[in-house]
Amino acid sequence: MARALREAGPEPEERETVLALDLRELPASVTDRLRTLGDVRSVDVAGLADYERISRESGRKDSAAERTRLARTMAEQPDGMQVHVAYRDGAPVSGGRLYLPVGGALENHGAAELAGGRTVPRHRRQGLFTATVLSRISAAVAAGANTLWVDALPTSAPILGKLGFTPVTWTQPYVLAVTPAPPAPPAAA
Fold first, then answer.
1. Residue 90 to residues 66, 83, 87, 170, Cα–Cα distance (Å)
2. Where is the N-acetyltransferase domain (predicted)?
3. 22, 95, 111, 180 — which has fewest CB within 10 A?
């Protein structure tokens, strides 16, 4: 399959581990830490500027387009997504998203998803990514989720494992670079 995909054009990205956390049986080491998160909060649409700043300072090239997509998601499904941001000395330095099923799906399946975790490079290894994960765990529990899952890069998987997440499988993302079509020539007069 991998060979067929590459021959068709998509390029493989870094393999990700899918991890899950049973929110009904959180380790004491996690529940104790939920009370001491520091300056981490769920932001509104205006606060997406802070998440965009984190993305840009983390080297993401599409941070403005991502902000637009996230604002649209917040407007269309206000209960379906939260963005949590950690601040250090008033500046946004780490963040991540929490997706909650809407329309009764939470009651039926009980699963929520973590995504988009990132930390400004000069603030890494200070517990800020962990703080944003803990903040999102707390929000998922408050929303009634039973399970939390995440696709994690090799840099995040060990951190998530220390919080009780268990590997269940892996994914291999592929990206197809699409070249925009040239503009159409002007119509003849």
1. 23, 17, 5, 37
2. 38-185
3. 180
Q: What domains can you pick out in the chain, each with its CATH number? A: 7-174 (3.40.630.30)
pTM of the model: 0.84
CA dihedral 133, 135, 140, 141 (to 10 degrees): 120
Q: How far apart are CA 149 and CA 136, in angstroms?
A: 11
Instruction: Specify the length of the chain in residues.
Output: 189
Find tokens 């001491």 and name the residue.
Answer: 36
Tokens found for residue 26: 């959180």
Q: Residue 87: is it exposed, middle or buried by C-beta count within 10 angstroms (0-12/13-18/19+)?
A: middle
Distances (CA, A) of 52 to 3, 84, 127: 35, 12, 20
